[in-house]
Amino acid sequence: MYGVRAKLSRRTDRRADPPVLLWNDGMQSWDEFVGDLLAAGAPEATQGGRRVVARFGRVEAEYDALRSGPAIVDRSYRGLLEATGKDRVAWLHNLTTNLVKTLGRDEGNYAFALNVQGRILFDMNVIVRADSVWIDMDRGFLPVARKHFEKYIIMEDVRIADRSDEGVRLALVGEGAGRLLGELGAAHAATMASPGMTKVSWRDTCIEVFRHDFCGSFSVELFVPVEQATAFWHEMTDETRARHATPAGDDAVQIRRIEAGIPWPRREIADEYLPAETRQLERAVSSQKGCYLGQEVVERMRSRQAVARFLCGLKVEGDIVPAEGAEVRGADGMRVGQVTSVCHSIGLGRVIALGYVKTSSASPGTKVEIVRGDSITSAVVVQLPFVGSPRH
Questions:
Q1: Which of the pair, 20 or 228, is modelled with greater confidence?
Q2: Span 62-74, mean pLDDT?
Q3: Domain range spanning residue 69?
Q4: Using the 8-state DSSP alphabet, how is residue 4 labeled?
Q5: Helix (H, G, I), strand (E, B) or coil at 154
């Protein structure tokens, strides 16, 4: 079906350890392409239930590429639902925490879907299109999202379709990505609001482009047709181009987004947390809209400022990287929270973590301990972001 598979080779690059993986242009599926990269020795990570490359070479080089750009990232672990029907906008407006009715064509925002107790079911980017509304989310949230949305289609003229597999999501990241986008006819994307939509033309194909700063740097995601995804990746990373993109794996992406203090689906965004606890109220929740599912709880917490815990940054002492899920304890030895994400920060040259910490221990400068089994590590609570501005 896809013709000749791309051949993979390995070469030693004095700048990279482990070896950098090279490939030629092939007509294989994206899953085959990623599978071949992993089979050739690339370290593996999992996001949204999908296998992705953790590193293509030195994580420091990929980290730098994500900052300065252009870098290219496999974002095929993101899912896409499409709502159609004449009632789609009003219906979705009542089911999300942010405004939908006021969005113009190709405009969007970030929002939560909540249950009746006000807890987060999933997060999403909502983008209004000409004849539909796109709902962008982590693929791992798709089953609960489909069930949730379909439950609340009563008499409304609304239909939900899963468009996740109709294209491969590839991101161009970093300040230099704007110049590469200019070559594709979308120089204006660098000043486009996040989230928002535009288009580029590549090989006589119209490709939808979605601004989404998912790891603290300027980023756009391109919905590349599945049959052209490997060819697009190859062309963007071709080192013979005057301006080409550096492949960046999930390890570097996670470091960048933790440094930026950005919560991640199924780590900091899960059904055990409330919107106010994520520190995303200004970004994700409108106080100006009318009723929506879970609003009463959100507004009660906002008005009373009664938040039991907050998402916090933790600067960890020493070089030991605590495990995700490790317990956070206060000075009295009592549990005050839990680590949700952790990495060795390249920007700071030290171990850092994100975690939910009780309000009484969440002030910057508070000393805590991170405990997992017999391992006890000292840490201090810090204000987010760790590095740079909190861009999303």
A1: 228
A2: 96
A3: 55-306
A4: S
A5: coil
